[in-house]
Amino acid sequence: MTDEKIQRINELYHKSKKEGLTDAEKQEQQILRKEYIDSFRRNLRGQLDNISIREADGSITNLGEKHGIKKGH
Known about the structure:
By secondary structure, the chain is mainly alpha-helical. The chain has one domain. Helices cover 64% and strands 8% of the residues. It has three helices and two strands. The chain has a two-stranded antiparallel ribbon with strand order 1-2. Strand 1 and strand 2 (60-62) form a beta hairpin. Helix 1 (3-18) packs across helix 2 (23-49). The longest helix is centred in the middle third of the chain and has 27 residues, at 23-49. The two termini are 16 Å apart.
């Protein structure tokens, strides 16, 4: 997600509050919001898949490997 797209999301939000959006702008807003949410989820999944914990016996467990890295996330 680029800074320009995030800025456009914010512009559309502020315009919707001030004067309303055209149908084309509403559709653009939905597409950009979906892209933002998908990007956020991928980033979060990547972070969670890379968490490792140290067990009481000193071994290290990679939670991404233990719980399976799911494709498509």
